[in-house]
Amino acid sequence: MRFLALFKKELREAVPWLILAVLFLLAIGWLIIHTKAYDQRQWYYGSISNGKVIDSYMIFRTDIMLEPAVLMFFTSIGLGLLVGIRHFWVPDFTRTWQFLIHRSATRSLILSAKLTAGATAMFCLSIAWLLLAGYARVSERVIIPPESGIVGMGIFYSYLGFIVYLGIALCALTAARWYTTRMFGLFFVFIMFMIILSQTNFTFVFCLSVFFLAVLIIQIYEKFLQKEF
Amino acid sequence: MSEIILETKGLTKYFSNKAALEKFDLQIPRGCICGFVGRNGAGKTTAIKLMLGLLKPTAGSSAILDCDSMSLTPKIRRRVGYVTEGHRLFRWMTIAGLESFQKPFFDNQWDDKFFSEMIDYFELSKKQKIKHLSNGQWAQVSLALALAPHPELLIMDDPTLGLDPAIRRQFLQGMIRLIMQQGRTVLFSSHILSDVERVSNQIVVIDKGRLRAHCSIERFRESIKKVKFSFADKVPTDIDIEGLVNCRIIGNELELILVETPQEKIAQWAASEDAENYEIVPMNLEDQFIEFTEPKKRGKLFQWENN
């Protein structure tokens, strides 16, 4: 019950940003899909016909979800950033930490409710991504449906958004000054992105990101237990 | 001897190199209504946060209900109500939302009826959003939230700050409702001495991070005296009298603030310094507090003070 109360409160605080991110992703993603679908139709009906010879480079088409995937990448990073700020920074400005901390719940429970709400927000964004991908798959306007690999990539991006959320959380919970180790969380996430995005082996990338995730969560847990409010 | 519900031993807190609290020793017995007073920046909020384990002490320790403040368990926290400075609540919630958020943390301890009564008493509606309430109403909601689980110990950090006199009185009446319940202990910090005088039976004075006094209100009232001496010609400047806290020369009159100085010692000193006459000027608690904590020339330390 206590966890549920805390989780509901944290999720409710994330909801405005989540709605904004979902609407942004769906609206811009839909526009991109429609533009790309138009291009596909132009190409298909203009270039492909029985017995017609075309150059091989003309056959190569980028996946219809490639550009929406880039959009998903930035949307999930933005959402991770905003929800992280809402959960871990705003209580500093509004001075509501004391009210939240002094209750019959352990600090671990309070933190786990926050992190679960953050993860749920990112999960909801990945559902929106799946809806977008599902639309691209079933829409009759789309000549070449998206590949499942790129759909999976979009889900992975929402996971990266959660990593950004954790980076922000670590920054906010660190008591050091801004120009010293307080930026470590974001710096760590930046380095992690550099490494991850330069790799091509998905299994390796996944293992690496799980490792980074574990490092961040352990750090956040320690900082939260030690933090002075 | 009554049970000690809150205790600090040599509690010290430094922020960088600046001492916010130094060697702060305090014992609050059960059933005590304790007014915690001090000037701005005296260390009241720091002391309260240390007591509640929200800050880590640089040295010393603090315990609430026999549990060290740094390791307060959820069970202990459930028995301690806390009204934060500025009544910072979640602005997007309604009063009903806040109630349903708070309730699960107290199990059967939460008194729905009492909470509703308090909200009605303060003429609020549960449908109101916190962000649409005034400062005074925030304070009222804070108090109702803190009182509804009937805490054994209620700690309030400047709960009446920024409230108008009518709301303040209503707030204090609400507080008195808790006090009426037997065995409840209240520690509340305030700048408003008349509030302290109205509801508390003990006073704790903190100044520059140090405990200056902890006694009953009556003892505090009796101990601090302003004595005005008149001199025919030269007013003495080298003053040596027991319990001197502050002195002021106005023309050929000398005002001394004395603490626990016996009447006969005052008379003796007046005779030895050839004072024409002297009178004890009546002071209210606020005047006494201001004179007592005014950073001026000091004589010997007050009996209750820490060295």
Please give the alpha-carbon distance between the first and last residues of chain A: 24 Å
Query: What is the CA-atom radius of gyration of chain A, in angstroms?
Result: 21 Å
Order of helices and strands of chain A: HHHHHHH
Largest interface: A-B, 22 and 27 residues
Structural class of chain B, by secondary structure, is alpha/beta
- Which shape of chain B, going by the Cα principal axes? elongated
Strand line-up of the largest beta sheet of chain B: 6-7-8-3-9-10
**What is the β-strand count of chain A?**
0
Kindly state the percentage of residues in helix of chain B. 25-40%
Low-confidence stretches of chain B: 297-307
Annotated CATH architecture of the largest domain in chain B? 3-Layer(aba) Sandwich
Determine the N-to-C terminus distance of chain B.
Answer: 26 Å
Q: What is the name of the CATH topology of the largest domain in chain B?
A: Rossmann fold
Order of helices and strands of chain B: EEEHEEHEHHHEHEHEEHEEEHEH
Shape of chain A: elongated
How many strand elements of chain B? 14
Describe the structure.
The complex is a heterodimer of chains A (229) and B (307). Chain A has helices spanning 2-47, 66-94, 97-101, 107-138, 148-173, 184-197, 202-226. Chain A has 229 residues and is an all-alpha fold. Chain A has one domain. In chain A, helix 1 (2-47) runs parallel beside helix 4 and helix 2 runs parallel beside helix 5 (148-173). Chain A is elongated and about 75 Å long. The mean pLDDT of chain A is 89. Chain B has 307 residues and is α/β, with parallel strands linked by helices. Chain B has two domains: 4-208, Rossmann fold, CATH 3.40.50.300; 224-293, Alpha-Beta Plaits (2-Layer Sandwich). Helix content of chain B is 30%, strand content 31%. Chain B has ten helices and 14 strands. In chain B, the strands form three sheets. Chain B has a six-stranded mixed β-sheet, sandwiched between helices. Chain B has a four-stranded antiparallel β-sheet with strand order 2-1-4-5, with helices on one face. Chain B has a four-stranded antiparallel β-sheet with strand order 12-13-11-14. In chain B, helix 4 runs antiparallel to helix 5 and helix 5 (135-147) packs parallel to helix 6 (165-179).
